[in-house]
Amino acid sequence: MNSPASYLWAGLIVASIAWYAFLVVYIGRKAGSEIRELIRTLSQRGPSDPPEA
Amino acid sequence: MTLSLVDWSIIVVYLVGCLVAGLWMRRYVRGVQEFAVAGRHMDLNLGIASLAATELGLVTIMYAAQLGYEKGFAGATIGVVIWGAMWFVGRTGFVIGPMREAGVMTIPELFAKRFGTRVRWLAGLFVAVGGLLNMGIFLRLGGEFLVHATGLPPSQLEWVMTGLLGLVLVYTMLGGMLSVLVTDYLQFLVMGVGIVAVSLVVLWHTGWGNLVSGLDTAWNAGQLKAHPYNPLHASNFGWGYLLWQAAFQIACATTWQTQISRVLAARDAATAQRMYRRTSFYFVGRFLLPALWGAAAFVWFANQGGLPEGVNSLTAMPHYLSLILPIGLIGIVVAGMLAAEMSTDSGYMLTWGTVIYNDLVRPCLRRQPSAKVELLLTRLIVLGIALFLLIYGLWYELPGNAWDYLAVTGNIYLASVFTLLVAGLYWPRATPAGAAAALVLGAVGPILFLVIGKSHAIAPEVAGASSFGLAAAGMIVGSLLTRRSPPSAVVPA
Hints:
The complex is a heterodimer of chains A (53) and B (493). Chain A is an all-alpha fold and 53 residues long. Chain A contains one helix and no strands. At the A-B interface, α1 of A face α3, α10, α11 and α15 of B.
């Protein structure tokens, strides 16, 4: 590993892989709940409810 | 053919799952509000998944890997620039805060409140033309990946991509943003697993030490034309290009309609800003991980004596992956890459379809159509966009590399619309004449690049930066030379 800049890129690669893995688990769980909530909200809306701005 | 029965099973299960989930959401669509912005019920984490999935397409992976192949890790610097731009916009709420509070569905709709309906229509035209030209190469690049990664005969590229687009079209046309959000979520998961898995396999297969020494050797021997680590080196991007990218990416974060559609679908401005901050680092990996694959492909083929016949800097990465990924894993990876392609196609078709209906068609209608007719028209426009993609994607030949094409076509409206947004929100003296001048002048540089780019060498940063300068000049001079328009604040709805 000759160039010091390669250490910076190595750090960013490791951080990116870790971040992607974390997001898949964390966002996967949280966003799944939000989809259920979204569907519940849409199901409960009556036909005459005005759209929200 | 490199795919086994196990790989095909994974891919089929994934595709059927997406189709079923997308079609399921159709029942909740009652009007254009649900169709275009999911009734504005999107929460933070779903927004992050959707934004990340839409903005990381197979086309992204292809051009980022091409940058890695040609420029080493320094090719991923643009991802670092986007990280800074997204974090800045998310932290300050620059443009996106007041835009969400205005309660509009598209950017040109905001211009109607500030500059009048003519500017809205003109802006809608530029947004749609720039966006569609930009999206025009998605299918071909996605198809190139699949052909090289799976070993499909090249003659089947068009049929495979037509089938894939048809599948995306069905659920996007019927379920709109609601289907897009749910399928984006599935695609975010599959794509995330695929990207992490490929990155680990590439690192394991090549070895970090071999990768770095291979790049060093190639750079010292003159095989690699750009410095593999230093983006500021004269052989790599250089200052001029990166400064243009900084301005371009801030404009993109505040103006690119597919990103802004998530802002407008968010519950409120604070949710939109949090979504931007938390997604910002994702953009580093969006460039860096495919660049890692591209750089590894470069080292691999350099050690083998060069690229095989029929393979170039764009297709080297998928060809390399087809050689190193084991049976089973390649099925997950192909499903992940299909996910990347599908989430981007659906998000983009919906977004440009909404703009065309909302800002080009609707202002020309004498009577306000019923909700059913509005939905039908929007769906037909989405269908028209899909047809355009098929035709344009098959015959257009790229004048430079894929990233430059995407940046320049995006710039057709980015520079001018960004100027309108900033002036409209923060400069009370801005007038409709200044806005019209900014729109037209901002598109001159990028269009010239597209038209004469093949015969005359125009640097993309020159074409791009000139459009920002021309748009700003048009806005300032046009506004100062005309009468100030009546006070028309952008009022939160």
